[in-house]
Amino acid sequence: MARLLQDPSKFHPSEWHAANRMQRASTESQKSRSECVVAESWRLVDEIEKTTQKTQSDVNKKIEQRREEIKFWKQELDNKLEQIAHETDVLFTFKNRLERALESCKEPLVVAQKCLLYRQRRVGIDLVHDEVEQELLKEAEVLQGIIALLGRTLKQTNEQIRQNRAAKYNLDMDLKDKFTALTIDDYCASLTNDTSHIVYADNAMKLEGNFVSPEDWIDFSNINVEKADKQRNNSLALKALIDSILSQTANDMCKQCEMVNIAFRNRVKEVKDAKHKLETLLAMVMDEIASQEKNIAALKKAIADKEGPVKVAQTRLEARNHRPNVELCYDTVQCSLMNEVQEITKNIQRQDALAQAETELKRLSCRQLSLEEDIKVKEHTLYIDEVLCMQMRESVCINNY
After folding, report:
1. In terms of CB atoms within 10 Å, which end of the chain has fewer, N or C?
2. Region (Disordered) spans which residues (predicted)?
3. What is the arithmetic mean of pLDDT over 40-67?
């Protein structure tokens, strides 16, 4: 109890003053440090603000640069898309021209083949491998070659249209991506620190997806542009080729068609001349037949006219054979009568002229039949060439598509 009532230990006044000094020094030191921290904080805040503003300004500039870059490539892609689309549309018209030209070749080929079949119906000596047949065969060959060429060119055109569409598709896809990217960057450019709907995005720093380098990005669009240019140039070259082919094939068809028609006209004229000559010969033969028939009739009449004289001579001889005795004399009368009978009998028996005339008449009749048959052959040939073939060929129309 006594200890409890004992006064606690007391500090010396010097200690009290020392404690106060230390407290003041510590406080002043802490205040100084705090002021330094505050100053440094303000400096840091100011520095961060300036850095943030500079960084944001740089980002804004880069976004603007990127937008201009995207706009540039978008314009390039738009131009190439318009060009390739135009070339594809034009190439479609060339394709239609090829299809019409190909279709127009079918009728002339059918006509040429029909002419060859019709001309196989010629008969006799007129079934000849003449110039008309040679030109018709050449025409069929030319048309078949043209059809094959146009078919190959049409396939090439379809393939080029496919290539153009592929290039156009790549441009379309690239343009859609560029439009989306530009829309996003436009949105990013519109954002400010005061925009109401901006939020923290914790995952924004994660690089998800297949990021490409700026060089690869440029190369991608550049490749699409180069492919479009290549296909456009290919289309231009193909159009020039198609123009040349259509012009040349039309000229070849017209030229060969005219060659066939000239050959037909010459052949028809030749056959008509031959027919006219045969008809002239037939008329000559008919006249000769009439003349020979008259000759035969005259020969027969001459032979018939000799029956009276021979009868008279033979009757006289028969009567004089009854002369009596010495009167049965071989006198000059008897000799003359004998000679007369022999001469007349010999002339009657000599029918060489009549036989020869009848033989000639038979030959002339055979010649008549031969000429008539040949004339019919020529008429049949003229019907085939002039009526069937040439009239059918009038329907052939060759256009330069």
Report:
1. N
2. 1-34
3. 90
